[in-house]
Amino acid sequence: MERTQAASALTVAVAKYAVGAPSDFDAFAAKQAHWLDEARALGAELAVLPEYLSLELGATFEPAVRADLRASLAATQRYHRDWLALFSRLARERALHVVAGSFLLDVGGGRYRNRSYAFAPDGSHVWQDKLRLTGFEKGAGVIEPGDALKVFEVAGADGGRVRCALAVCYDCEFPLPVRAQCEAGARLLIVPSCTDTAAGATRVRVGCLARALENRCFVAQSVTAGEAPWSPALDVNTGEAALFAPMDVGLPADGVIAQTQGERRWAVARLDFAALEATRAQAQVANDRDWVSQYFPSVARAKVVGFGNA
């Protein structure tokens, strides 16, 4: 990918997405249009929907299918082509970059990957598969991890571009892959997430904060909200959508730029990438710059020692 002019700022909206039970694909599509209209009205240039968004389509099937994860995943594949067409159209019509949460996609042999799609205002898309599986995903027995990291560019209103990367939920809790994405130029990490417990929501949030700190990047996390008792995967949803920054001079001391609360559906902020870059010169600490200091022989392995006089 050629080096292009960096955008100075980008307005990003992250959803606290209320899971529902659409009656058919048209109802699902209308809901997506409504949510993205809200984001656009709030000034968003990039809108982020949550992980497992495609599982909401399970509500369109008969009770026996939607209550069975494997059967629901298999049935949802009929919507994949329509899914791509829908979000391509919504992105074009609204001149908006859209991260459409994730779609559990059959990649052959009855195996599924948790794939997050990002759509550009011209309708084109890129995707990133989730690399690490949670206990729930492993237990499903049919979901497999992805095997490649990607970085892509999003156009800002000033004509410049911002390099972005996707880390789907649990992936944000692992520093080295995200570091590789940031070393490839990513300055915005996008985290579509879905968590059912307060502990899970905290883990993902802490992961987002840690990745922002280590890499001097912004992080945008979307979440699912509410209850869907008909779904074995979306039954209970916990957490707040948020936009994070490194905790440094000129940036929020707690790392939180904006977040949802209560009934608020979107957290929105204009991310200033020029200001982010400028913080390097006056940084109190510089985890991003000092990262390589970890790589020396004496810390490659820790050794057990006993108490003594030395």
Automatic annotation (TrEMBL):
Record domain CN hydrolase: where: 10-273
Entry keywords, A to Z: Hydrolase
Domain of life the protein comes from: Bacteria
Alphabetized Gene3D superfamilies for the sequence: Carbon-nitrogen hydrolase
InterPro entries for this protein: C-N_Hydrolase, C-N_Hydrolase_sf
Keyword check for Hydrolase: yes
GO molecular function list: hydrolase activity
Pfam families in UniProt: CN_hydrolase (PF00795)
Protein name as it appears in the record: Putative amidohydrolase
Biological source species: Vulcaniibacterium tengchongense
